[in-house]
Design a protein that fits this description.
192 residues, 74% helix
Length: 192
């Protein structure tokens, strides 16, 4: 029993209170993102994503990962209404909260990481982007995963961590064109 308690209090994973607080914050982030997402109808760019997702073919103007996820989401839910299609970006935006906590944990205390997760949970721009059927909330999530994987790979310096980093890098590049600039910034940081 004491081994389980020690595992919960590990400095990297956090205490039980931290895990509960992070889960509650993620639920709050989901609620904030979901509220009002069903009101609007499709606008032009969302309609293009809708058409591409229905056909299972990504747009030629953006990376394909979000369109593929929307195609799978439509198949899974058997609905292509705006409210149903917006549920995926809402969930991805809420998932960015615990990922941000894990990434921020590399740099500081639990309180610092919790503050970073809180800022992602309530940031107005992140809330707005989660209402759109576009890859922006997925890009926020994948960027946090990529940066967390990079710092874990530097810290541990073993091939499984570098493999996770490479997979996250590939997924981030398949999400949005801005991932190229993020990769350039990470490369410059590694060189300097």
């Amino acid at each position: 029993m004491s081994d389980k308690i020690r595992a919960i209090d590990h400095p990297r994973t956090g205490s039980a209170r931290t895990i509960i607080a992070l889960a509650a914050l993620t639920l709050v982030a989901f609620g904030l993102r979901y509220y009002g997402s069903w009101i609007r109808f499709f606008w032009y760019d969302e309609l293009a994503v809708h058409v591409y997702a229905l056909n299972g073919h990504p747009s030629s103007q953006e990376p394909p990962l979000f369109s593929w996820l929307e195609f799978f989401w439509i198949w899974l839910t058997q609905s292509d209404t705006p409210a149903t299609m917006r549920l995926l970006p809402v969930a991805l935006g809420a998932l960015a909260v615990p990922v941000t906590y894990r990434f921020a944990r590399h740099f500081g205390s639990r309180n610092c990481a919790m503050l970073a997760a809180l800022l992602v949970a309530v940031a107005p721009k992140a809330l707005h982007l989660s209402h759109e059927i576009r890859p922006y909330s997925l890009f926020i999530l994948m960027s946090a995963m990529l940066l967390g994987a990079l710092f874990s790979a530097y810290e541990k310096d073993t091939w499984p961590y570098w493999l996770v980093y490479r997979v996250c890098l590939m997924l981030c590049l398949l999400t949005h064109m801005l991932a190229l600039q993020l990769c350039l910034a990470m490369g410059l940081t590694a060189v300097l």
